[in-house]
Specification:
The structure is a single chain. With 216 residues, this protein is an all-alpha fold. It contains 10 helices and no strands. Helix 3 packs across helix 10 (187-215) and helix 9 (166-182) runs antiparallel to helix 10. The radius of gyration is 19 Å and the shape is globular. It starts with 23 loop residues before the first helix and ends with a helix.
Length: 216
């Protein structure tokens, strides 16, 4: 998952200093799961406040959005800084984002709605913010399913890149979901919208520079 890019060369497995970092991906995955463990401990201790389900939903949804934006930032960061290590953790960040998005939806569907399919379907069709979040989750599913090198080889690099551009659409829908959910104070979702706009700008500027260089 994450923004599409060319398959990494051996140099892409190196840090800015040129050293291999075999611990990097495990560290990212472990760090990414810590908030879930903390949330579970808080829930077990009854420390999520008077509306524990809403607090859990908010935390899980925010983690999904943060991790998705972080995965999309890997390629722009490489373009701006020249560092290659962000490309190594992009897939891990994307899969963590999908994991938290699934946890967010399952908490809503199972814990909040008691797995009442009729109510869930009504919410999806009648409440725009839930529809936006649900479509974002659906878009992330095929990206997670095709995140392996085997799937990249099977469907081809060009088709894989086109498919994984859906990560940008999912991120935009995630911000819309967040924006519609908070209703009043939209400061935080606007920050994520600005970050996404910046990532888009870097990618567009890089593509324009490549086209200009190729035309010379």
């Amino acid at each position: 998952m994450g923004s599409p890019a060319r398959p990494m060369s051996p140099a892409g497995a190196l840090s800015p200093a040129g050293r291999k970092l075999p611990w990097l991906v495990p560290a990212v995955v472990t760090g990414g799961l810590i908030p879930l463990a903390v949330l579970g401990l808080r829930a077990g201790a009854g420390a999520l406040g008077p509306n524990a389900v809403a607090e859990a939903l908010n935390q899980l949804g925010l983690l999904a959005l943060v991790l998705l934006v972080a995965s999309l930032a890997a390629t722009p960061l490489k373009l701006v800084s020249g560092w290659t290590f962000p490309l190594r953790i992009r897939k891990a960040l994307g899969l963590l984002a999908f994991f938290y998005a699934c946890a967010h939806f399952l908490t809503y569907a199972v814990v909040d709605q008691g797995l009442d399919a009729r109510v869930v379907i009504e919410d999806i069709t009648e409440r725009p913010f839930i529809l936006a979040g649900f479509v974002a989750l659906l878009l992330l599913a095929p990206l997670a399913a095709t995140s392996t090198a085997r799937m990249l080889k099977r469907i081809g690099a060009a088709r894989w890149k086109r498919l994984h551009r859906l990560a940008y659409v999912a991120a935009v829908l995630g911000v819309v979901h967040f924006f519609l959910r908070v209703k009043k104070d939209t400061t935080e979702p606007m920050i994520y919208a600005a970050l996404l706009a910046l990532l888009f700008a870097v990618r567009i500027a890089s593509a324009a520079l490549r086209r200009r260089a190729a035309s010379r």
